[in-house]
């Protein structure tokens, strides 16, 4: 799996959610609404989710293993940092 495109679509300077991101995988599959969130230990990603009838949030799409999640997070956060630098200049 290769992430072939990352698009940082929305920014927020206030609140914990810092951006909404879309990624393209292998130039063939897109995942929208990945959130960049600022937590107690720094930035992390939250996969797109839906609220269930019980009031819980469940991921709609997500990596199967922690290595893939870490790879996605590293790429997304790198692109997020680049986008911030571009908007601040």
TrEMBL record:
SUPFAM superfamilies: SpoVG-like
Gene this chain is encoded by: spoVG
Keyword Transmembrane applies: no
Entry keywords, A to Z: Cell cycle, Cell division, Septation
Source species: Porcincola intestinalis
Protein's name according to its UniProt entry: Putative septation protein SpoVG
Single Gene Ontology BP annotation: division septum assembly
Family: Belongs to the SpoVG family.
Keyword field contains Cell cycle: yes
Annotated function: Could be involved in septation.
